[in-house]
Design goal:
Order of helices and strands: HEEEEEEEEE
Number of helices: 1
Low-confidence stretches: 61-70
Strand order of the largest sheet: 5-4-9
Helix content: 10-25%
Length: about 140
């Protein structure tokens, strides 16, 4: 075996080892780890939570369906999540806001509005935050 063949075989072994390590790294990037500070599972590559926040508006108190409040054809549900910076300790870091708006139609169930849709937030940067729910209706202009 000549020196050139030795080098070629060594390069081939190094390429195979690099390919296997690259595949192992790709697999590790998509695995999850538990973060004890926020109490949720996180992705290793981004550090974002894999927990989902699902919000369903199933009804309300003191809402008149037939007349008055929510008498229009469409009701608007806007959900705003302001996420606190979880576990980093940076008080100067800006607080990210994840906002999703959902327009829902309402269906009368015993004189109360009900929504069947759900607003789902995925990939929140932390598990601690403030949730604000606004329910509005379209106004009739005559």
């Amino acid at each position: 075996m000549s020196a050139v063949e030795d080098v070629a075989a060594r390069i081939q072994r190094l390429e195979e080892a690099r390919a296997s390590k690259h595949a192992q790294l790709r697999q590790l990037q998509h695995e999850l780890r538990y973060n004890p500070h926020t109490g949720v599972d996180e992705r290793l590559d981004s550090g974002h939570s894999v927990a989902r926040l699902e919000l369903k508006v199933e009804g309300g108190r003191n809402m008149l369906f037939k007349a008055g409040f929510l008498s229009g054809k469409m009701a608007y549900v806007r959900v705003t999540v302001e996420v606190a910076s979880g576990g980093t300790g940076d008080s100067e870091a800006p607080t990210p806001t994840v906002m999703e708006q959902k327009v829902t139609t309402k269906r009368p169930v015993q004189y109360a509005p009900i929504w069947q849709e759900a607003v789902v937030f995925e990939g929140l940067p932390a598990a601690v935050g403030t949730l604000r729910l606004d329910v509005m209706q379209e106004e009739r202009v005559r």
